[in-house]
Structure formats: C-alpha cells, structure tokens
Amino acid sequence: MRYLLGLLLIVALAAAGAFVYAGRLPGPAIEITKPVKYVGQSAPVEVAVTAPGAKLTRLEVVFEQNGKQTPIASLAQPASAEIKQDGPDKVRVTRTISREQIPDLKTGPAKIIVTAERPVLRGMRKVQSSASHDVQVRLEKPMIAVISTKHYINLGGSEMVVYRATPPDVESGVQVGDVLYPGYPAGGVKIEGVHIADPAVKLAFIALRYDQDVNTPMFAYAKDEAGNSARADFDRLTFPKPFKKSRIELNDAFLDRVVPAILATTTEVAPQGANLDKFLVLNGELRRKNAETIANYSKQSSAEMLWNGVVFHPFTNSAVEAALADQRTYVYGGKDVDRQTHLGFDLARVVNSPVVAANRGKVVHASPLGIYGNCVIIDHGMGVQSLYGHLSSFAVKVGDSVEKEQELGKSGMTGLAGGDHLHFTMLVNGQMVNPVEWWDQHWIQDRILRKLREASGS
Ligand SMILES: [Zn+2]
To answer: How many A from CA of 372 to the centre of ligand 1?
Structure first.
C-alpha cells in the first residue's frame, strides 16, 4: 500500500513536472518580412510562423496605429487573408493592406503585431509568442511635372528632360519602354547662365534604343519607399532612322590573330573548338556580356555634370567606316555565319594615332574589355559616358580626371578589329547611343543648354 502511494506520488510529480516543463517550451517563431519599413497607399504584409508540424492553435496579425488595433489576418477567419503552409514546419501569411481594410490609416508611425500559439503536451497545454514590427505610414503621393519642352528623339539617339519632383528626396527619372533613366539634381550643372537652386528640379538624360519602337511609351516618374508613385507626360516627337547593312568577310588570318588574343584577356567565356566556333561565341555571348559590363559603369556616374556644356570632340578628321546600329552579316568561306548590330562608330586615321577624350570627365575603365580590346570609358556625369575601343596603348588610368581632347592612348587593333581604328560610342545610362548628336553644337545648344537656361529662372 505504501509502495503504491509512493508510486502514485512519483507519477503525479512527473506529470506536474512535464506540465510545467511543456509550458516553458518556446512558442512559434515569428518573422515579419513585409513591410520592411514603409506602408504606402497599398502595402504587402508577409509573416512567416514556424512551429513543429506547422500546427498552430492561434494566429493573429494586427495593425496598430494611434492605440487602435485592426485585425488583418486570423486563423479564426482564414478567409480574410492567405494563410498557407509553406514547408513542413512553416505557415506563411500574405495580405495586402490599404485604406479599405484600415479606414483610419494615417501618415505616421504604426506597428504590425503578430501573436501565435502552438499546442504542447499532446494539446494539454499551449505556448504563445508574439512579435511586433515598427513601420512608417506614408500616404502622400509624390508629385512630378515636366518643365522642359520640345523633345525631339531620334531612334538610337538621346534627349534630356527637366522636371520637378517632390518631395525632393523621392526616387525619380524617366522611363522609356522598360528602361529607366534616373534623374539627377539640376544643381549639379555648373554652366554659366544656369543656376537651378530648387532641389526638386531634376534632369534625366534619356535614350530611345536603336531596337525600340519609335512609338515606345515614355514618361517621367517618381516613386517613394512606400510604393506611392506618380507619372507625368512630356511633349515629344520621335523619328525613325534607317540603319545600314554591311557584310564582313572573315578569314583564317583574322580569326588566328583576334580569337586567341581576346581569350587571353577574358574569363567570361571559354569556348571550345575551331577558331570560327570560338569567334561566334566572342561575337555573340561575349559581346552581350561586355555590353552588360559597360552598362554597369552607369551606376558609377557622377551626380555632377562634368563636361560643362561644351560640344563633344567630333573626330571629324577621321574616316567613318561604320556608324551606329549597322546591321552586320559575317561571312566565312562564302557562307553567312553570324549577324550582329554594331553599336558605335568606327573611325580610322593613321596607325597609332592619338585618341583624345571627347569631353571633360573622369576615367572609369582603362584595361582590356573583351571584343573592345584595350578600352577606355570616361564618365561625363549624370549618366553620360563615352567609350574608346581597340587602343594599342593607354595614357590614362582609372580615377584620372581628363580634360576635353586630352590624350587617352593610341589607336590600335586590339579586340575584334580588322584594322587600326577607334571604336567610339556615347552611352546614356549604359545604353549605346548615336554620338553624331553629341558632336553637333546646334544639337547640344537646343537639346540641352536651351532647356537648362529655360529651367534656370524657375
Ligand atoms: Zn566598331
């Protein structure tokens, strides 16, 4: 009898111990992944809750602002939000909130609060946990209006748009099709007669890519961290441009010279097979990878206009051998083997002639760059850059500031070059554009300086 009582006592103590222990087990792990910081007119909410077997007895997501709580998702009302099992131990809640669900939503601080509960000890006890995440509500839409007028855009060419976006720190720019051109504060222009102190006035250099439609939609945009956005149209005329067709004969002497030389300086492709097969990889895949590398330099562009509004050096003393967007067919042994678009100008003078900076700027690249051989890229600020390819030698290094017509190196035939020439292109936010416009004083005057002066008194 005593023995039995003792056993009962032990069992009772063990049960009590298990009960207490289970109550101290951790509650479900809660992770509030969205919104990160801002809530706009409409904002996604995303919460992940982890518990063994994804078993939850309670799950509440609440939006709290100015002491008032609004339920936004609950296990008790699963229809109100998307609550989905996401892995063996995880539940994910997704929901978009807006003024419709939270009529009192106001600009200012708020909180997302999540409470979750899971069963322990075969459901005899429950353990709970909660998490809270501070957010900022921003309901005011940014505003944007274009100031500049008379925009004329050639296919493959450039333009500049001046606009006013508020609040001044809002992300803004111009979108052309699916390409974004960021705006830069107009205060970064240091040209005589141009004084734009208003921090809300921005300018964006834009391009209509040679392969876009002449009717491509374009507009100025502003978008804040909370996802609120605004857009503005601008008056414009766009003009098609016929691109030339040309044929390039490949021969073994050319392939033997250029293919191993380019492969010796590149790690981005490693083609196998005959020189012609390797050439096709360089002319296609490497050409595209090089274009990406070049486009990435736009992210390093200075927020200041470094070239002071002076026309770009026109290289008029050179013979133009190829122009922007020539459609090239490559022929080998009498057969068409490849087609590519040539994005730049090929300018030939005498062998090893000095290559000069088209305008004032800063060197962002001075080393071999795939099919462009020894290549210099100069940043002129606000997304405008220029590229010089196939050089035989360098006279500058990365980080150097250069003046207009300062020597960058000597012309050559490194990279994919049939003979000694300079491959020159202008870049607008990484897009290769027709340099002829930038070589034209009248174009600079009307497309850029006129608009800056008109925006100046505003
Ligand atoms: Zn070229």
So the answer is: 8
Ligand 1 mean position to 178 CA, how many Å? 26
Q: What is the pLDDT of residues 63-88, one digit of tens each?
A: 999 999 999 888 887 666 688 888 89
Kind plus residue range of the DSSP H or E element containing 334: none
Q: How far is the centre of ligand 1, averaged over its atoms, from the C-alpha of 423 (Å)?
A: 4
Nearest to 112 by CA among 90, 89, 136: 136
For 227-267, write each residue's pLDDT tens digit: 899 999 999 999 998 889 999 999 999 999 999 999 999 99
Reported in sequence order, the residue ranges of 66-106 that DSSP labels E, i.e. its strands, are 68-74, 82-85, 90-98
pTM here is 0.82
For CA atoms 401, 404, 409, 415, the dihedral sign is positive
Q: How far is the CA of 67 from the centre of ligand 1 (A)?
A: 66
DSSP three-state, residue 145: strand
Return the beta strands (E) in 155-244 as ranges: 158-166, 171-176, 179-182, 184-185, 201-207, 218-223, 229-232, 236-239
CA distance 146 to 152: 15
Tokens of 202: 């921005």
